[in-house]
Amino acid sequence: MTPQKKMAYGLVGVAAMMLSLSFAAVPFYNWFCKVTGYAGTVSVAETGADEVLEQTVKIRFDASLEAGMPWEFKPQVHQMTVHIGETALAFYEAYNPTDRVVAGTASYNVMPDLAGGYFTKIECFCFTEQVLQPGERVVMPVSFYVDPSIIDDKEAKLIKEITLSYTFHETPLPEQQAALAATPVKPIN
């Protein structure tokens, strides 16, 4: 085999390896963010914390809409103070003021980023697509706690305020909803 062919095979091998690693990058990054709380990514649990501490933290709630999303969206309460480890419940409200069915999905973030690994959601509307009929208003819960291990982190234990922020994005209607929305309504004679 000539040196040029060896070089060509080597370069093809490197390119194939880089391509396969690029497909693994997104799932690996998502896993990394969930484990470390990097970029404000929160933890998820099925139950509350095992202990509730005397220390408290203020939780602020923020709501926004992606450009072009026609809904109105807001937290019902803008802030609350909770004990670290205490399971808390907050509500957000969404309203579809349009004359059409609109689907949306919420993305979320926690600030400061360092708090992300300690802010734990138990139940959240961001895990499911929301479909609102024309004029429909819904109240959506988010159940959460701040992990007591936050006090063991020399930097994170200084956090006195955490902001939970949601942004709703319009998404394509589910197939069945889209078919219903596309069907013209026949007037009753």
What's this entry about, in short?
With 189 residues, the chain is of the alpha+beta class. The chain has helices at 3-36, 175-182, and strands spanning 43-44, 56-65, 72-75, 79-83, 88-95, 102-111, 119-124, 130-132, 137-146, 161-171. It is built from 2 helices and 10 strands.
Radius of gyration, in angstroms, nearest whole number:
23 Å
CATH topology term of the largest domain: Ctag/Cox11 (Pfam 04442)
Strand arrangement within the widest β-sheet reads 1-7-9-5-3
Give the overall silhouette.
Answer: flat
CATH architecture annotation name of the largest domain: Sandwich
Give, in order, the helices and strands: HEEEEEEEEEEH
- The tally of domains stands at 2
**Quaternary arrangement of the chains shown?**
single chain
Total strands: 10
Indicate the CATH class of the largest domain. Mainly Beta
**How many helices does DSSP assign?**
2
